[in-house]
Amino acid sequence: MRKLSPADYLPMPWKNGGGVTTQLAIHPAGAGLHDFGWRISMARVGQSGPFSRFPGVDRSLAIVEGAGLTLSMPGRFLSQIDEASAAYAFPGEWHIDSTLVDGAVTDFNVMTRRDGWTHKLERLRLDRHVVLQGADDAFIYCAQGQACANEVVLTAGDALQTGPCATLDLRADAPGLLYLVRLYRNDKKGTIHA
Questions:
Q1: 107 & 121 share domain
Q2: pLDDT value at residue 4
């Protein structure tokens, strides 16, 4: 297990040069945009525009803060997502344009290279004790409040990368907001299945 704080995160330019993202975690360690197995990041989106394209990658996007984004492809509406929406999953090859609903947003983004990994992104409003199925790797980001994840205390801005785990033991004594990413290897060798 590895606890992370904002000092561990890496600001870097978007692939398309349209902004800056904060990389929270990447696998394998030291990988770049062209050779990661999975990558988790957050970005402040201050203007409407196209998403970076990532062929061979599956993505999920959730809004952490702000009124939301409208997502579309040429001639086709896809979805409008906001702080209350479930994560929106889509293939990285898609030509997606985003339009800000009402001002800047902060998003939470998960990418897995589909020849090696799959993922599930969930937003959890937590005010009790829950035990969830684990994964081949898991990443828990505390966006608001405080929580305990597998006996590690997280405050707003902290994260925990668990490594392989059979269960996720999450608790909060007061309302907190977590983003939970469960990551699964596609090779099926020694994996923990949800």
A1: no
A2: 97
